[in-house]
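In the present case, backbone shapes were mapped to integers, as reproduced here:
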Amino acid sequence: MKIYLSVAALLLSTSVFANVTVQGEIERIFPNLGVVNFKLKNDRCGNTGQYYYFPLTNEREKAWYSMILAAANTGKRVVVSVPQCPTNAYVQVRYIYQEF
């Protein structure tokens, strides 16, 4: 019984903290009703029309919005962490940053 609980806890903790990091230039930004949706060019998820998104509810997310707008205007790449690659739905961003 203890072994089953240990294995279940390990699998659950792995799936909770698993994430995918993708990077690329901004292809499209689509803000709508307090949520910023965006798409990356040639990201490693093979994103073929699906979007990443984040709400504009705090200062951190407003800074992300400014960052992706600047990156889009300058052609710079951003790095995005998400729980999983998009398949047929939008995927919420965990965090975004930019390397120089």
About this structure: The radius of gyration is 16 Å. Residues 28 and 39 are 5 Å apart (CA to CA).
